Amino acid sequence: MSQTLAELGEDALIQFIAETFDSNSSIQVGIGDDCAVIQSPSNLHVVTTDAMIEKVHFSRETMSAAQIGRKLVAVNVSDIAAMGARPAYGMLSMCLPEDLSVRWIKELISGVASEAGQYGFSIAGGDLCASPGPVFLNLTLSGTLVASKPILRSTARPGDGLFVTGTLGTSAYGLRLLSSGQHVNDASQSVAKHRVPGAQLENADVLARWEGCHAMMDISDGLAIDANRLAKASSVRLTVNIDALPLHEELEGLPDEEAQELAIYGGEDYELLFSAAGPPPIKATRIGSVEAGAGSVNWVRDGRPYELLNNASYRHFKTNSATQESK
Amino acid sequence: MSQTLAELGEDALIQFIAETFDSNSSIQVGIGDDCAVIQSPSNLHVVTTDAMIEKVHFSRETMSAAQIGRKLVAVNVSDIAAMGARPAYGMLSMCLPEDLSVRWIKELISGVASEAGQYGFSIAGGDLCASPGPVFLNLTLSGTLVASKPILRSTARPGDGLFVTGTLGTSAYGLRLLSSGQHVNDASQSVAKHRVPGAQLENADVLARWEGCHAMMDISDGLAIDANRLAKASSVRLTVNIDALPLHEELEGLPDEEAQELAIYGGEDYELLFSAAGPPPIKATRIGSVEAGAGSVNWVRDGRPYELLNNASYRHFKTNSATQESK
After folding, report:
1. Stretch B285-307: mean pLDDT
2. Are both A90 and A210 inside the same structural domain?
């Protein structure tokens, strides 16, 4: 039988963590003191935090430990990117059941470290504790701005076009495949995107340096919820053309309306939703436009107004689907 | 019956949170965007993170929601203080069961806000999600240095005296009273300290401005573990005189050795342990001295060497007491 966390003990685990997370020049004091000490390139920074809990955000049956660690990093980097910033350092809390295998935990930590390394940052510190049940993970991520100002969701302007990167509904389709109980083809890009979404850091970087981009956010809870948030924050009326929503080729076998519903309501794509004056300097799809208004979204399909279903997107505390793992 | 979280919904809860946490000048963008945007007075800062989980760190039977919220803040402020810094802003994650009452959650949030306000900072952002079981809380706290340098645990010098603020074993005694199943006297200061420890921010401030203080940390896991950590980090040999350990008057009824064991092994006092050249400019008790060595602690009682019990202090993943709630 493989070694458990209770057998390994806290000190040995902390030693493994300290060896796995590289330090770098911005982390003056890393793991081992009361706090980490950080030297930032500027005194203006952004910060986000995200928790991931077993049986809510992930299942140990459908995702490897490394994938869970990588996803935890990617969803936080996505928030940092969407502000027009780059990640600088992270603080990681892990609350783990005592009977968890050491191999699983080391894979988790290595997954966090490798994904963080891809985005050019490391973990400066954290907290480790016993969980009475599910695995509980929390990452707080700090970042530095690419330009002199952050890109907010509250600054879309009438006359802007509305754009998204990548494809929508892909992660939700991947989750559906995983939840179907059928054998999953590991070559499925939808499944891969659900497991480890990646973050649009390079695209966000270009947009942050381009003055035409007026408002930006990442799509984590699905376009239905997130477009509404952007409209409300900016006090504008958005028109979204459902027929223009970019779909992954793996959704091509689905009836049109079913695929579009995944794109409208599906969460966890972690693509960028942004408003811009003129064509953006990155590959993106124009899905609508920004008009003067008071915080609403006007959905159009086949040239006609389209009524969204109530509560069809994912909401914590008001879930409509027991199988949904999204945030 | 009182309203549950599932009935209230996420949006209404976020609105309550945004109204409860004051913004301040350092928080340029607070709750509501992908990230918070922070303007720091300097580009050097410290950061810590701590999780608190129901049934591991607290029980809803023995602590009110407001006390749990206050304790979450205090244990993080204690880490910030122990670096010679003041808290600047926090990021709060709350993972809550759907059937939790709204009244309890609002009390929790108000507890966080009031304790943070006492220490002069606010919550800049966070994450909210459903928990499949226990309440999970995580606070990441950032702070700014009082002086030009942090005070580390790795810089104790041979010749220093070893000091602690306040009393030791008090929180552990409070936990024992709470765990005894007997009626608890709410006037007990030990119980109050276990529930909401407070942080030694003012004392730490004075020490951070005083050049005589060479090394400092907070005592969270008990003196046995934490003195050992300071000795190892500084590569020195500490001598601790057990008879000098400061005990709260509520422990006076206990046999000497029993009270001293609480002071040695009990966690969660959140007092400061520091090494200093000469008498410190705050009220503190000298409990020992720092000598050249290689990272060990020499315990003395009645003038004779004293062997510590193995594993008598609290360790996550190697617990020796099912009733212990400490970190």
Report:
1. 96
2. no
One domain, residues A196 and A250:
yes
- Give the N- to C-terminal CA distance of chain A in Å, as an integer: 34
pLDDT for A283 equals 98
The pLDDT, as a whole number, for residue A62 is: 87
A42 to B41: CB separation less than 8 angstroms, yes or no: no
* C-alpha–C-alpha distance, residues A179 and A181, integer Å: 5
CA A78, CA A83: separation in Å to the nearest integer?
9
Establish if A151 touches chain B: CB-CB under 8 angstroms: no
Return the pLDDT at B298.
96
Average confidence (pLDDT) over A159-184: 92
B23 and B126, same domain (yes or no): yes
pLDDT digits 0-9 by tens, A22-61 = 877 789 999 989 999 999 888 899 999 999 999 999 999 9
CATH number of the structural domain spanning residue A241:
3.90.650.10
- Residue A272 β-bridge partners: A218
Q: What is the reported pLDDT for B313?
A: 56
Q: Which residues contact A311 (CB under 8 A, 6 or more apart)?
A: A318, A320
Query: Is residue A230 a contact partner of residue A287, using CB atoms and an 8 Å limit?
Result: no
Nearest Cβ partner of A47 from B36, B95, B133?
B36
Distance from CA of A217 to the nearest CA of B (A): 6
| B153/A33 touch (CB, cutoff 8 Å), yes or no | yes
Cβ–Cβ below 8 Å for B218 and A34 = yes
- Domain boundary among the residues A83, A113, A145 is at A145
B14 in reach of chain A (CB within 8 A): no
Contacts with A32 from chain B: Cβ below 8 Å:
153, 233
**CATH at A114:** 3.30.1330.10
Q: What is the ipTM of this complex?
A: 0.91
**Three-class SS of residue A199?**
coil
pLDDT band at B320 (very low <50, low <70, confident <90, very high): very low
Q: Do B175 and B292 have their domain in common? A: yes
Look at chain B and report how many structural domains it folds into: 2
Total CB pairs under 8 A between chain A and B: 240
223-242 in B: which are within 8 Å (CB) of A?
Answer: 233
Range of the domain at B249: 161-305
- What's the rounded Cα separation, in Å, for the pair A158 and A25? 43
Interchain contact B317–A (C-beta under 8 A): yes
